[in-house]
Design goal:
Nucleotidyltransferase, domain 5, binds 5'-O-[(R)-(carboxyoxy)(hydroxy)phosphoryl]adenosine, 5-stranded mixed β-sheet, binds zinc ion, alpha/beta, globular, single chain
């Protein structure tokens, strides 16, 4: 399929003409391509209010990778190449915008798969150069972290953030855009990984989190005693690697009976993960004295986690915010939003040096480096 972007870039002076730090950036085009989802979005920021999502489009590669039981990086990169421009065209049409109206082009710079990141970065910088507009590389986790600002009821700073994605599990104190203090994090597997690996052991395919949680709905969460690592460690760190071993041991013990007991094993696994996330989040709120919790990342879509957090936060008189369900997993909207908020707050400046690089490994506490 050939796809051409309407490159009529002759007219229109950008509203974001002088790149002044802290100025509302205007119209931000965001591109996400760090793993197995290609996402493109347009966010508009005028003044100091919360930037507004105009349109977004997403292509998930899940079906393509399913045959391999996980993400195949080379296939991911090639598919991003195929999808990114058609998605951009789609988003511009949905917003009733032309490419010439874009003031800043933002892209995910890391962390993620190097080849996949290079696709989004390359396209973003090429577009920026062709349009004569500045570009900004965004930290993928900051995108997740700020994704609840895309909801109808956005949070206010400061807050505690529970960031639970496929590769990361962190509790953070967030005082403002770019001011992130890590309070605790996983010492081995991430919560999403615990869902995915346990699901794989049960033969539930990839990605395991949603499949496991669906199966858990008909199971008994108290059926199997599974470990809750570091639950009483007194700090805010997590450890999930032991859980998958316990699930494997349990599955082996069940033998032929596994098939009929899968819902129970799924429910027990989910209960163990959710309990640890819940207890540590509440401890982080007590420790910081903050009364606001923001949950972000793919595991934030988990219904059991949301129900348990909602109940606990109601008792503790804590406001809890989530991204909209469809924006919990990777998407372009969160990248455009994070870019808009960074520019608006003066934490970052978009640049006209189009010699991009990517950061496949990029700790969030090194975000300014
Ligand atoms: O944030 P994300 O899309 O990608 C990363 O940046 O890693 O998160 C993907 C993770 C996967 O581990 C997936 O299994 C998990 O989020 N996930 C879920 C649910 N939906 C997605 N885990 C549990 N319950 C869900 N409903
Ligand atoms: Zn992600």
């Amino acid at each position: 399929m050939m796809n051409r972007l309407p490159m009529s870039v002759t007219a229109s002076t950008p509203s974001f003409a002088d790149d002044t730090p802290g100025r509302a950036p205007g119209l931000v085009l965001g591109i996400e391509s760090s793993c197995d989802e290609t996402g493109v979005a347009l966010v508009h920021a005028s003044g100091q209010g919360v930037p507004r999502l105009e349109a977004h489009a997403l292509h998930s590669q899940i079906e393509m990778h399913q045959a391999y039981g996980g993400v195949v990086p080379e296939l991911a990169s090639r598919d991003h190449i195929r999808r990114v421009l058609p998605l951009a065209t789609q988003v511009l049409a949905a917003a009733g915008r032309s490419l010439a109206e874009v003031d800043v082009v933002a892209y995910t710079r890391g962390p993620g798969l190097a080849g996949a990141l290079l696709v989004g970065s390359g396209v973003a910088c090429a577009l920026g150069a062709a349009l004569g507009r500045p570009v900004l590389g965004v930290h993928h986790l900051e995108g997740h972290l700020l994704s609840p600002f895309l909801s109808a009821d956005p949070p206010e700073f400061p807050f505690v953030a529970l960031l639970v994605s496929g590769g990361h599990t962190q509790l953070m104190r967030v005082d403002a855009v770019g001011e992130y203090q890590i309070l605790g994090e996983t010492i081995d597997d991430a919560a999403g990984e615990a869902f995915d690996k346990s699901a794989k052991l049960m033969g539930l395919g990839y990605p395991g989190g949603p499949a496991l949680s669906r199966l858990a709905e008909t199971g008994d969460p108290a059926a199997f005693k599974l470990p809750r690592p570091l639950l009483h460690s007194g700090d805010l760190d997590f450890s999930f690697a032991g859980l998958k071993t316990a699930v494997l041991t349990q599955a082996r013990k069940l033998g032929d009976a596994l098939e009929s007991r899968k819902p129970d094993l799924a429910a027990s696994t989910q209960a163990a993960i959710v309990e640890v996330l819940l207890k540590k989040s509440m401890a982080a709120l007590r420790q910081t004295g903050l009364r606001r919790l923001v949950v972000a990342g793919g595991v934030g879509a988990n219904r059991e986690l949301r129900q348990r957090l909602n109940a606990a936060c109601l008792v503790a008189r804590v406001r809890v915010h989530y991204p909209e369900l469809h924006l919990c997993t990777d998407n372009g909207a969160m990248i455009a939003m994070a870019a808009a908020m960074r520019l608006q707050s003066g934490r970052a400046q978009a640049g006209r040096d189009y010699s991009f690089d990517v950061r496949p490994r990029w700790p969030l506490d090194a975000i300014d480096t």
